[in-house]
Every structure is written in structure tokens, then in C-alpha cells.
Amino acid sequence: MIFKKLNSPNYSNRLRNLRSIKLIVIHYTGMQSRIVSLKRLLSKRSKVSCHYFIDRKGKIIRMLDDNKIAWHAGKSKWKKFSNLNKNSIGIELVNKGHDFGYEQFTQKQVNQLIKLCLYLKKKYKIKNSNIVGHSDIAPLRKRDPGEKFPWQKLQKKKIGIWYKNFKIKYKDEAFKIDNKTFFKNIFRIGYRYFNKNKRSKKDVYIIKAFQRRFLPKNVTGKIDQKTQIISHFLAFKSKK
């Protein structure tokens, strides 16, 4: 793929081995406009960057070469990985986000994102289960790319994970609501920042992060039967 290139000053001095790239992390910019977002990513003061930037017209800008460690993930965990900057490619999508008037992502934007993800996935042999949102890897502090992000559409193009449609069987013992089982399921998927055996007030943020991705019309922070079933399906069916 050919990209317009801008050089963000915000990256680690040490270059990384490209074989260390194991994840793609998708963000929204969460700022008032494209111009404001680019200014921030190009400012030394912000100490924030990404590898790729996709505006609402579908234009892709390469902010940093893949061998540079961009500062996009921050404090984060997914599976065995922690502080994911060193292991991930960061992609920013122009969207005002929850604080400035959250928008639907545009068709052109999503189509270009799909092309970019397929390119990166093939180039670095990235597993579908390691294509994640910022809220997946930092659920206690992030909400992006948010409940309007079309994860299901991406999965149809073999990007990321999703679940099959199903009918809830209320008498099925395996799908009774059980907090302990739910958290064991999502730990198996890759989520962290919780204790599998002990509940905390912070757990609501973990549940919301899961629902924001897989049940975007039902971001309640409460485990209902559908949330439980989806966690079970993804934990045992999505291994790639």
C-alpha cells in the first residue's frame, strides 16, 4: 500500500524488530476535528502518536514507520502482553468521540481501515484475536473506538473476532448467569485488569468494555444471559 507520510516526533528512540509486532490496536481520535487531531499527533508536547491515521474521507496518512514504537496504547494489557506500544500497530480514526459528539464512522473510512488491516495482518501474521480496540486493552480508562465501531463488519472480512447468531435457550445449564464463569471466559479471550476469583467495583468497566465491543446496544455493565453466552462462545470458539 502507498500512503502519504507525516512524521510524528513521539516515539521511542529504540527501533523494534518487526517480528515483535503481534497486535493491531484501533482508536478514535476523540477530538473536535481532523486538523486538531493531526496537530496533537505532531506536537512534541502531547507525547501521543500512532502509526496510521484515517480521516473521514478515507485518506490514510502514515504517521510513523512500523519499526518505530508509537505512543498510542499507554498502560495496557492483552493476553500475555503488557504496555502494548512495543508489540502493536496503532491506528487512529478521525471521530469526535464520546466527549465531543460521537459520530458514526464513515463508509470510506471503514473500507480503508479494512484494506489496511488486511495488509498489516498478512505482513506481520497477526491473529484475529489480537486485533483489538483501545478499550479492550485499557478498559479502566478508555472507551474507544466505542459502540458505533463496526466490529461485525470487519469480522466478515476476516479481521478481528465475532460470534455466530444464536437463540437463547433459557433452560440450558451451561448458559446460566455466573460472574465467575464470565470473567474466566473473558480472561481466556484476552481481557485483563481483574481478578478471576474476586469481584471488585472496577469490574463494571471491564463488563462495559466487553459489551461495547460485542453488545453495543446493551452497554449496561451488568452481566445478562446474552453477555454470558457471547463470552462463552468467544472463549471457546475464537482461538485464531
* Ends apart, CA distance between termini: 25 Å
Share in helix: 25-40%
Identify the overall geometry: globular
Helical/strand content category: alpha/beta
Gyration radius, rounded: 18 Å
How is the main sheet built? 6 strands, mixed
The amount of beta strand, in percent, is: 5-15%
Number of domains: 2
Order of helices and strands: EEHEEEEEHHEHHHHH
Q: Give the full name of the CATH homologous superfamily of the largest domain.
A: Peptidoglycan recognition protein-like
CATH topology (fold) name of the largest domain: Lysozyme-like
Average of pLDDT: 94
CATH class bucket of the largest domain: Alpha Beta
Offer a concise description of the structure.
The chain is built from eight helices and eight strands. The protein is an alpha/beta fold and about 240 residues long. It is globular and about 55 Å long.
Describe the structure.
This protein is an alpha/beta fold. It has 2 domains: 4-156, Lysozyme-like (3-Layer(aba) Sandwich); 173-237. Helix content is 32%, strand content 11%. Strand 3 (52-54) and strand 4 (60-62) form a beta hairpin. The protein is globular. The model has no long low-confidence stretch (mean pLDDT 94).
Summarize the helices and strands and which ones pair or pack.
Layout: E1 4-5, E2 23-28, H1 34-41, E3 52-54, E4 60-62, E5 77-78, E6 81-82, E7 88-93, H2 97-100, H3 107-124, E8 131-133, H4 134-137, H5 151-156, H6 179-189, H7 203-214, H8 225-237
Parallel strand pairs: 1-4, 2-7, 2-8, 3-7
Antiparallel strand pairs: 3-4, 5-6
Helix pairs in contact: 6-8
